[in-house]
Amino acid sequence: MSTIADNLLSIKQDLPSSVNLVAVSKFHSNDDILEAYNAGQRIFGESRMQELTQKYETLPTDISWHFIGNLQSNKVKNIVPIVDMIHSVDSWKLLSEINKQAAKMNRIVKCLLEIHIAQEETKQGLSFDECKDLLKENDYKDLTHIQIAGVMGMATFTENEVVIKNEFKSLKSFFDELKNDYFAENNYFREISMGMSNDYKLAIEEGATLIRVGSSIFGARI
Ligand SMILES: *Cc1c(COP(=O)(O)O)cnc(C)c1O
Fold first, then answer.
1. CA proximity to 109, closest of 77, 156, 62
2. Each residue of 107-117: pLDDT tens digit?
């Protein structure tokens, strides 16, 4: 039987140096997280505020926590003191709230703009047009306590690799467009967060810089 440390190392073995691994530890215990930590993992992803704050209080302080879940404005103040990066920002309201709370705590929080690239209907994520409108219509450069660090997307849940690859390609080219049109002089805008347990290899081929892998490291979530 393979352990968490083995799973982690086998994923890391094939990782290009341009790609960082976010170990998605939602629903998994502190012991599981510590096993990954002791094998050298430092970036962990969580998707629920309460679970994240509990883990944060008891686990080593040099963990870099990334928030990857659906985020409500009223929860922002609880996660801003904890996280280095929020992958799931899909509105101006959230961006400005994160900035406001981060300013109070004198922190800078990296934010990724979540883009809807999958065929499935979900409420989460901006369309390409909505994202461009957000950047056109708002003074994001005035938000001095956030850094818009890139984009995040989730591919359709399918076994059809052509569909998945095309969605990842579309996110990469949208990233390139935003970089060129809005963030050309900005060194922080460099992350493409895409790829999960089932599709992270395809995501790496298409230019991911952050992959978010849970069950391939920790096993199934029960
Ligand atoms: C749960 C989750 C993951 C990890 O999914 P796995 O299939 O377990 O690797 C990645 N990204 C997001 C946004 C998630 O919610």
1. 77
2. 999 999 999 99
User: Predicted confidence band at 2 (pLDDT cuts at 50, 70, 90)?
Assistant: low
Q: Give the span between the Cα atoms of 142 and 9, in whole angstroms.
A: 41
* Contact status, residue 15 vs residue 204, Cβ threshold 8 Å: yes
CA of 62 to the centre of ligand 1 (A): 22
Record the tokens describing residue 82, joined without a space: 């904890």
Structure tokens at 35: 């096993």
CA-nearest of 110, 75, 121, 73 to 93 is 73
With a cut of 90, say whether residue 221 has pLDDT above it.
no
Amino acid letter for position 92: W
Q: pLDDT tens digits, residue range 155-164? A: 999 999 999 9
How many angstroms separate the CA atoms of 135 and 106, rounded? 24
Any residues with Cβ below 6 Å from ligand 1, and which? 24, 26, 47, 68-69, 196-198, 212-216
Q: How many CB atoms lie within 10 A of CB 104?
A: 12
